[in-house]
Amino acid sequence: MAPFLQTVKSFADVHITDTGVDTPEFLAAAEGVVLLFKLLDNPAFALVVNDLEGNITKVRTRYDSHTTQSTTLELLIHDEQSDKKRPATEGLMWLLRGLSFTYKALHAAQSNPSTELATAFTTGYDGSLKKYHNFVVKGVFALAMKACPQRAGFYTKLAADPDGGAAVPQDKLNEDLNAWLEGLDKIVKGMQKVYKENGYGEV
């Protein structure tokens, strides 16, 4: 194996063309986010993991059944608008909300080296998913934020090679993580615009 960010698809490497965001590449990168939350090793984040996996499945199901019409996210949701039910459009909307939470949480952590993950993830949640959740779900997330691991331990996991190889230097880790986050933010903001301009819902 290799250090974490070298084993998952970076959002920085997801192709964006005139027709939109490459669907299979985006889904591969989104699956990396699931693995990232699993790396946190926090049972309280099971809700986040299940939500991400469920919404990835909805988008992938549409892609697999309508591949030629779904090569990009934009084409996929546009094609589904003619259907009575639109599970992929809704699934992608919630997936993008979860990715926005991920971006804002990790961006908060990257912006201030002294910020602990509990604080960074609370900041990310308050600025993304919180407004869409009811009282019960907000409580579950509040518990998850408090149960975040220590920052140092998490970053050590990100840098480490599980097979005992050399860990990624901190400068390289920050470079890769920042590129991953910038790519993620670009896609989320672009898709937020697509949803809003076409009346697909609020991301």
Automatic annotation (TrEMBL):
Source taxon at top rank: Eukaryota
Pfam families listed in its UniProt record: GLTP
UniProt KW keywords: Transport
Ranges where the Glycolipid transfer protein domain occurs: 21-159
SUPFAM superfamilies xrefs: Glycolipid transfer protein, GLTP (SSF110004)
Segments traversing the membrane: none
Keyword Transport on entry: yes
GO MF, one example: ceramide 1-phosphate transfer activity
One cellular component term from this protein's GO annotations in UniProt: membrane
PANTHER family linked: GLYCOLIPID TRANSFER PROTEIN-RELATED, PLECKSTRIN HOMOLOGY DOMAIN-CONTAINING FAMILY A MEMBER 8
Protein name: Glycolipid transfer protein domain-containing protein
Species in which this protein is naturally found: Paxillus rubicundulus Ve08.2h10
